[in-house]
Design brief:
alpha/beta; arylformamidase activity; KFase/CYL; nine-stranded mixed β-sheet; 2 domains; 17 strands; KFase_sf; 325 residues; Glucose Oxidase, domain 1; 19% strand; Cyclase
Length: 325
């Protein structure tokens, strides 16, 4: 499917048709809670470990601090870090500990999806229905995600990572402009240019670099959080399903192209990918240093570990992904 085939006036129809084509409901049984993460098994994880060549490692997380991307939309704020005990307290003898010992403690308050994170399977619904066809009100309540909480995949997100640096392959000076819709053709062209190590297949943890974070780091956050952005076209839904990847992450706030490709729509690819494909989406990942290293030696595959913070019942969680080459 090409972007030109989309009827901009009918997002509901496009979502319904795509959901029918790519649904994984029941594929791993009625009780499944891991969706596409089922593609990432022990054999693939063991094979991925053999990809480590140099031992060089790269954190793919943005900093978690007040100088972050969030603007307060839907109460998403940047982290607030507060010290509970400090060196000042220790020097002044205010801590009450014996024999001269002192210490420091701190606390952080933040939305779980304010920076580098995974969207869990309880994050998005389609017409009140969650992953695997469950009624959303039976899955996520005020107590949290009672079925597919992010803790259910805390121990399995480690395997073969693949970087598709679409910003370098297709863009100008390593960056795609805001509003650029990445199609299946763009992904195929990037794979062809990067070579055999960029082949994408079952169980892979796919990373797509657009270069938008590079631009935000240079020019300021602006509307990075929720504004126009390059991203995946809605028409990639069939490709995302057919490749049988375990997860996909981008360097943008919302994974898919913004503005979205329909009139009066909001994140329609999320509406298909999460509740129907069962696909885990990562957002706001920092792929720049890794991309530079991959471009230098032409190797775009690596071992990647990216377990989320296992907050019980959370529908998304912060992560510090580590790529080892």
């Amino acid at each position: 499917m090409n972007p030109g085939d989309l009827d901009r006036t009918d997002p509901a129809g496009a979502v319904a048709a795509a959901a029918k084509r790519v649904s994984n409901w029941g594929r791993w049984g009625a009780d499944d809670v891991r969706g596409t993460m089922n593609f990432l098994d022990a054999d693939r994880r063991r094979a991925a470990a053999a990809l480590v060549r140099t031992g060089e490692s790269y954190s793919l997380a943005q900093r978690f601090d007040m100088d972050g991307p969030q603007k307060g939309w839907r109460r998403r704020t940047n982290p607030v870090h507060t010290m509970l005990d400090t060196g000042v307290d220790a020097v002044h003898g205010d801590q009450g500990f014996p024999h001269g010992i002192g210490g420091a403690d701190d606390v952080i308050a933040m939305p779980l999806q304010c920076s580098t994170q995974w969207d869990g399977l309880g994050h998005i619904f389609d017409h009140g229905v969650a992953w695997n066809g469950r009624p959303a009100d039976k899955v996520v309540t005020s107590l949290g995600d009672l079925v597919t909480g992010i803790e259910t995949v805390a121990d399995v997100i480690a395997g073969r990572g693949v970087l598709l640096d679409v910003g370098r392959a297709i863009g100008t000076d390593g960056e795609l402009p805001d509003g650029f819709a990445i199609t299946t053709e763009h992904l195929a062209r990037t794979i062809e240019r990067q070579g055999a190590s960029a082949a994408v297949g079952r169980g892979d943890l796919l990373l797509v670099r657009t270069g938008q974070l590079t631009r935000a780091r240079r020019d300021g956050w602006g509307d990075y959080a929720g504004g126009p952005a390059p991203g995946l076209s809605f028409t990639t839904a069939d490709w995302l399903h057919g490749t049988e990847i375990a997860a996909i992450a981008t360097d943008t706030w919302g994974f898919e192209v913004r503005p979205n490709e329909f009139d009066h729509a909001f994140q329609p690819l999320h509406q298909v990918a999460i509740p129907h494909i069962g696909l885990f989406l990562g957002e706001m990942w920092d792929l720049d240093a890794l991309a530079t290293a991959c471009a230098a030696d032409g190797v775009y595959e690596f071992f990647l570990t990216a377990g989320p913070l296992p907050v019980t019942g959370a529908v998304g969680a912060p992560v510090n992904p580590i790529a080892v080459r």
